[in-house]
């Protein structure tokens, strides 16, 4: 699964520079278990302008919780996080989910879900073992701020996918609803507090409300700082859904969510390290909950 904001192509983020841009990831990645672990920096006021791009998937993605949305169009007259159309990808804001499980060749296998690809780019219709895919992504871009979320339901089936859909939707709704609050106090701590609330409270509440099971969740915001030409990527994650940044200047990929991984570096695909949903009774498992920030010059 992949949700992408290409900050170097966006006509909104970074002032729309489509010429060659040599941006750098500032040395040092900050991460910790509390909001105060994030360095206090001033943010530019988040844009009050319209949404430039919004996309979710696979299939209905975060819109699946609302019966007024169509699984085919992801568009309705009902707004979710200030957006009626969640099928507006672009060259600078996109997402995709592809199952890596083997093809299901058993007799009577159910038809596959519609992949998050343009029709002309889709391959032969197949069904994978483990369908439905429990991955969910959402991405939304405004003039100087972008919100991204990815969730991976723990296990196979409808309930893990439902949990992932609830988690991504809760992030989008809470961050969007909190933009006026952040405008009044545009700091990294205020933004990180909103992300922590979205992950540990709002997502958890929505999962329990819809009787979902367990899911990982990574919520991220890219926003402009007050220092001219500087931007920040702020992430709050639980479980093992990593967030990466590709730095064109160094041609390196930075794992922003390294703080969620085991301290010994040994990652076990059978253990997510933490999860939302009824993991500990009705409470989430926040063992590896981590806040992270990376600055981009």
From TrEMBL:
Coiled coil: none annotated. Residues 103-129, 258-282 are annotated as: Disordered. Pfam families: PP2C_2. Transmembrane segments: none annotated. InterPro entries: PP2C-like_domain, PPM-type-like_dom_sf, PPM-type_phosphatase-like_dom. It comes from the Eukaryota. Residues 122-246 form the PPM-type phosphatase domain. Gene3D superfamilies: PPM-type phosphatase domain. This is PP2C-like domain-containing protein CG9801. It comes from Geodia barretti.
């Amino acid at each position: 699964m992949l949700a992408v904001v290409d900050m170097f192509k966006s006509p909104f983020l970074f002032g729309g520079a489509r010429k060659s841009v040599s941006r750098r990831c500032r040395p040092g990645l900050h991460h910790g278990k509390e909001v105060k672990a994030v360095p206090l920096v001033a943010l530019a006021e988040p844009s009050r302008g319209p949404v430039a791009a919004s996309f979710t998937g696979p299939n209905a993605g975060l819109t699946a919780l609302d019966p007024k949305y169509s699984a085919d169009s992801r568009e309705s007259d009902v707004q979710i996080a200030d957006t009626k159309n969640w099928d507006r990808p672009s060259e600078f804001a996109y997402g995709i989910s592809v199952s890596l499980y083997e093809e299901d060749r058993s007799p009577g296998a159910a038809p596959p879900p519609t992949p998050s690809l343009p029709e002309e780019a889709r391959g032969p219709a197949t069904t994978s073992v483990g369908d439905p895919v429990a991955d969910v992504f959402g991405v939304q871009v405004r003039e100087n701020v972008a919100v991204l979320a990815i969730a991976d339901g723990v296990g196979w089936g409808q309930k893990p996918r439902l949990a992932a859909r609830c988690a991504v939707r809760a992030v989008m709704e809470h961050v969007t609803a909190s933009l006026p609050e952040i405008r009044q106090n545009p700091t990294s701590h205020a933004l990180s507090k909103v992300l922590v609330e979205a992950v540990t409270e709002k997502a958890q509440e929505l999962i329990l409300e819809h009787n979902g099971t367990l899911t990982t969740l990574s919520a991220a915001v890219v926003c402009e700082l007050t220092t001219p030409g500087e931007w920040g990527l702020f992430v709050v994650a639980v479980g093992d859904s990593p967030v990466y940044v590709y730095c064109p200047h160094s041609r390196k990929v930075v794992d922003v969510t390294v703080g969620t991984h085991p301290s010994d570096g040994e990652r076990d695909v059978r253990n997510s390290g933490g999860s939302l949903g009824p993991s500990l009774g009705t409470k989430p498992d926040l063992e590896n909950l981590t806040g992270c920030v990376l600055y981009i010059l």
